[in-house]
């Protein structure tokens, strides 16, 4: 990883604000391993994987996405 990329990530790693990633498991554009990596590297990040969903999981499974959002915000 180059130095510029490392510097850009430092503020995210220092930020303790809760973060929610809602990711379609079948996203061909941004594969789920990117979300897994982000969630593992960034404190306070929760990853919700949406099965059989693509790049816009709220179109494929709006109920699951709404549930994930409700759970996340109610826990704050």
Question: Helices and strands in order, then pairings?
Answer:
Blueprint: H1 3-14, E1 19-24, H2 32-41, E2 45-50, H3 57-60, H4 62-74
Parallel strand pairs: 1-2
Task: Describe the protein in words.
The protein has helices spanning 3-14, 32-41, 57-60, 62-74, and strands at 19-24, 45-50. It is an alpha+beta fold and 76 residues long. It has a two-stranded parallel ribbon. The longest helix is centred in the last third of the chain and has 13 residues, at 62-74. The protein is flat. The protein starts with a helix and ends with a helix. The model has no long low-confidence stretch (mean pLDDT 93).
Highlighted features:
2 strands, 76 residues, single chain
Please give the count of helices.
4
Radius of gyration: 14 Å
The number of distinct β-strands equals 2
H/E element order: HEHEHH
Gross morphology? flat
Question: What portion of the residues fall into strands of 2 or more residues?
Answer: 15-25%
Low-confidence region ranges: none
Spatially, the strands of the biggest sheet line up as 1-2
What is the CA-CA span between the terminal residues?
Answer: 33 Å
Overall pLDDT: 93
Helix content: 40-55%
Structure classification: alpha+beta
Reported for the largest beta sheet, the result is: 2 strands, parallel
Provide a compact summary of the structure.
With 76 residues, the protein is of the alpha+beta class.
């Amino acid at each position: 990883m180059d130095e510029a990329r490392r510097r850009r990530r430092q503020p995210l790693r220092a930020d303790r604000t809760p973060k929610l990633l809602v990711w379609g498991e079948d996203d061909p554009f941004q594969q789920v391993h990117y979300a897994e990596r982000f969630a593992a590297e960034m404190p306070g990040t929760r990853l919700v994987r949406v099965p059989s969903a693509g790049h816009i999981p709220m179109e494929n499974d709006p109920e699951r996405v709404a549930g994930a959002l409700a759970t996340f915000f109610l826990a704050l």
